[in-house]
Amino acid sequence: MSDGNFNRALLPKNELAAGIRAGKAQMRTRAEQAFIKTISEHLPHLSDEEQQALHNAFMQHLRTT
């Protein structure tokens, strides 16, 4: 009979972890698209190279957090 505690090693490893990774990837993609849209709407005077540099910096920050 269980006392309410359980061994986490007995839980399925793939389903939960895969779901969390998929959710993170989806949120990262949404954040990237929102950032691209924001740059193009609010900073249209920037050149393509400058916009790409901002995008790369944002993605680098997103990967480290």
The gross shape turns out to be rod-shaped
How many strands? Answer: 0
Radius of gyration computed on alpha carbons:
20 Å
Oligomer: single chain
Percent strand: under 5%
**Overall helicity:** over 70%
Spans of at least 5 consecutive residues whose pLDDT stays below 50 are none
Count, helices: 2
Arithmetic mean of pLDDT: 86
Major sheet details: none
- Secondary structure class reads mainly alpha
Order of helices and strands: HH
Distance between the termini: 42 Å
Provide a compact summary of the structure.
The protein is 72% helix and 0% strand.
Task: Describe this structure as you would to a colleague.
There is one protein chain. This protein is 72% helix and 0% strand. The relative contact order is 0.09. Helix 1 runs antiparallel to helix 2 (48-64). The protein contains 2 helices and no strands. It is mainly alpha-helical and 65 residues long. The mean pLDDT is 86.
Produce the secondary structure layout.
Blueprint: H1 13-42, H2 48-64
Helix pairs in contact: 1-2
Keywords:
65 residues; mainly alpha; rod-shaped
